[in-house]
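User: Could you check the structure of this?
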Amino acid sequence: MLQRKDVAPDFKVGDGSLYQALADRAVVVFFYPKAFTPGCTKEASTFRREYEKLKASGCDVIGVSRDDQATNDRFRESLSLPYPLVGDPDGKICEGYKVSWPLIGRSKRVTYLIGRDQRVRLAFHDEFKMDEHAAQACAAAPAARD
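Assistant: Sure, the predicted structure tokens are below.
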């Protein structure tokens, strides 16, 4: 897992990139193991519920999983998520963020808050407290505006 103050690797988000998003706002990047599973649905929905609070604090949100992009697009649509989900089927983003489970081809449940300086401000890992990821991001968000 990346640690506080580590530089977050850039990656493609739709037609742009993480670093392009960071030019304007801090970004919460959350990694989830598998779309359409109960835990990941709960986690993504919690970020949807807290999205306006995070936006008001100066943060955008991006979700990442090892599912392909088409699966992530269907997952996003099924939950009416206001933020993008990024597919990482080859695991390169997960490897860069040090969130891959060895051997099983899934990501760990990790949330990062990345400041506009491209440095990690929050690194939170918990496989079972799905609601806590958004809560941790909301608590840390005001400090990430610089």
